[in-house]
Design goal:
Blueprint (H helix, E strand, L loop, with lengths): L1 E7 L2 E11 L5 E7 L11 H10 L4 E5 L3 E6 L9 E3 L7
Antiparallel strand pairs: 1-2, 1-5, 2-3, 2-6, 3-4
């Protein structure tokens, strides 16, 4: 399993997937998303938005420039997906 951190339309995503394809020249292909995370008693709207955003998508191809980190993580029954707010640069 892999955890991929990437930026898409000014939102940062952290998503867990079963498979990555790095054979494309300029893209990371992310397949087989793991979105079955434990929500607990409190519903996190950011996690719900991530689940809704990627639930019907089989594969996404993200430019390498948008990826900040790819981690290989141990196989688990559930993964987590998080949308993080961008921090504004101080001038």
């Amino acid at each position: 399993m892999f955890k991929v951190y990437f930026k898409l339309k000014d939102e940062e995503y952290e998503i867990v997937a079963q498979d990555l394809d790095l054979s494309h020249p300029y893209f990371v292909s992310i397949k087989d998303f793991v979105l079955d995370y434990d929500e607990g008693l409190v519903v996190n709207p950011q996690l719900e938005n991530t689940r809704k955003r990627f639930k019907d998508i089989e594969t996404i191809m993200i430019p390498f420039q948008c990826c900040s980190l790819i981690e290989k993580v141990p196989e688990k029954k559930s993964g987590s997906s998080v949308v993080l707010k961008m921090q504004e640069k101080e001038q």
